[in-house]
Amino acid sequence: MRARRGRRVARRVRAVLPARGAAPWARGLAVAAGAGFVLAALGAVAAPLLKGMIDLWSGFAVLRDGQQYAAPLAVAVAVGFGLGVERVTRGAGGADAAGRALGAFAIAVPLVLLPSLAWGAAGRLEPVHYPGSWARARDIVRADRTAGDVLVLPWATYRSYGWNGRRTSLDALPRYLDRRVITSDAVVIGAKTIPAEDPRSRALDEAIASGRPLTEPLRAAGVRYVAFDSETGPGNPDRARLAGAERLVDDADLVLYRIPGPARVREEAAPLAPTVIAWLVAIGVTLWSFLPQALAWPLAPPAPLDVERPPDAHCDRGRGGRPAGRPRVVRRRAARQRLAERPGHQAALQLRLSVTQPLRGHASRGRVPPTSP
Prior knowledge:
The chain is an alpha/beta fold. Helices cover 47% and strands 9% of the residues.
C-alpha cells in the first residue's frame, strides 16, 4: 500500500515538470527564468566575480541591480505555481489524498519560506507621502509659462530623505515634476566614475564642480529652477552660489530657486529618419514572423469526420484496429472536399505559397494540401 502511494505521489510530481513536447514558449520562459535568476543572484553569491567584471569593463555595472532580471522568474513562478497546484490536485473523479496533500503543501510553501512578509513585514512596510513643500514646488513650476529646465542639487544620484526614514533611494524629483529635470546620473563604483548619460548633465558637470557662482552659467544653459531636495539647511554652500535667483520655497524638505530670463537652448534631437527606419524594420520583422502561421490557419486540416460506411463496404481491421479498406478512403475524400469548399481557400493557398517558397528555398519540399478530391 505504501509503495503504491509512493508511486502515485511520484506521478503527481512528474506531472508538474515540463513535458518533452511542451510548447516552445514554455521552454523559452524556463530558460529566461533560469538566466534571470543567475543574474539576480550574481551580486549576492559571487560578489568578487561581479566586481572583477566591472573592473574589466564598466558596462557590466548594469548587473549591480540584479533584481530587475528576475522578471521572467516571477512570471514563471506566478503562472507555473498555480498550474502546478492544479495539475497535482486533479484526478479522474476529483483530488485524491496524495493530490490534496501536495496541494496543501504547495499553498503553505510561500508562508514557510517567507514568513517575514506576512502583514507587510509585520507592519514595517507602509506607504510614504511626499511632503507639502514638494506639492507647492510642483504647483509653482506647473503654473510658470516660461520655458526652462529644473536643476536638482546636491549633485548626486542617490538621496536619503528624512521624510522617508533616511532610506537610500534614487532622486525622486525627476519623476515628480512635469518639466525636464537635470540631475547627476553618473555611476560611482569605488574609485571609478562612469560618466552621466544625459548630455545636459555632462555639460553642467564642470560648472557645478568648480565652486564658482552658478546663476549665470545656469541661465546660459537654459535652467529656470534650482531645487535642493536634500541638505536644505542654510549651511549648504551651494545656496550661496545662486546670487540673483529668487527663493520661492524654503522648507526643511525642499528649497526652490527661480532664475530670471533663462536662455532658450536648442538641443540636438536624435535623427528622425534613422529612428523611423529602425522602428519600421523592427515592426516589419515582428509581423513577418507571425505571417506564415497566420496564413497557415485557414489551410489547417479539419477535424476527423464521422462518415458513415456504405453497407457493402469491406472493412477488415488492420494493425492497431484501424480500418484497412474503403472507409479510410471515404474519410480522406470527404475531408479534402470539405477543405476545398472553404471560402477563400484557393486565394489563401496561393498567398501562402508566395510567402513560404522564398523562405524554404525549394517549394517542392513542402507538402501542400490537395485542392480537389
